[in-house]
Amino acid sequence: MKLIECPRDAMQGLTDFIPTATKTAYLNSLLRVGFDTLDFGSFVSPKAIPQLRDTAEVLAGLDLSQTRTKLLAIVANRRGAETAMDYPEISYLGFPLSVSETFQRRNTNQTIAEALADVAAMHELCEQRGKTLVAYLSMGFGNPYGDPWGPETVAAFTRHLAALGVRVVALSDTIGASTADTIRPLFAELIPAFPQIEFGAHLHTTPGTWREKVQAAYEAGCRRFDGAIGGIGGCPMAADELTGNMPTENLLSFAAEVGEPTGLDMAAFAWARDEAAGVFGAAIH
């Protein structure tokens, strides 16, 4: 299993600003664990996400000399992607492409048509500069706005991305609405239909539903999973206050059960979890 740790998602919604030095120390502890990818920060308007206004400063303090982990930064438009191009340390750019028109406008202040135009431009830019675009299909398992949704909607977006040449697509459960009955058939349909694409699962969950979600995605062929230590973060629009990111601890437990190697340094993981408790305190699930 390929594990993507998402401290950026864990931090971005917190009201109190985490000092740059604290962020940097925590991310360095995560780099020592050996995750495949670290979703470490974002190049978006500081007015939109004030918590991550110091991403460039944090990046300058990261020790990448003895890690296999690749860095991923979230961008919300072409301007953010162009900024990220100045940093050769970053391997992946992540863009939240919503299958919900309402959420696309709320999240990136764009229509879906405008977002797709940006995706095309950003993918081309990544190809030119040796980076990879990760398209997050947010609201991928339904939305609370009444916008059209169904497996055929998600498949249509995926076909468009495949035609552009996008190679990594993460189906994103933005509000924790997914169930095994929506997760399993979607991955089971898309993975064989688009063998050139690596599909990931960015699943938000409550403590009681995580296993059925991970198991459904895994049994349908998904091997790329996003998580956050302690289940920190998630979408503020979720109705259930217990809804958060998929806890990395649970992903590791599931991987052990099914005999999937992760390649993680578990001593370093224990240290990083202690660091997380210092950063997030009582928010750790």
From TrEMBL:
SUPFAM superfamilies per the UniProt record, alphabetical: Aldolase
Lyase found in the keyword field: yes
Keywords: Lyase, Metal-binding
All copies of domain Pyruvate carboxyltransferase, residue ranges: 1-270
Matching InterPro entries: Aldolase_TIM (IPR013785), HMGL (IPR043594), PYR_CT (IPR000891)
Family annotation (PROSITE patterns): PYR_CT (PS50991)
MF terms in GO: lyase activity
PANTHER family: HYDROXYMETHYLGLUTARYL-COA LYASE (PTHR42738:SF7)
Family assignment from sequence similarity: Belongs to the HMG-CoA lyase family.
Protein name according to UniProt: Hydroxymethylglutaryl-CoA lyase
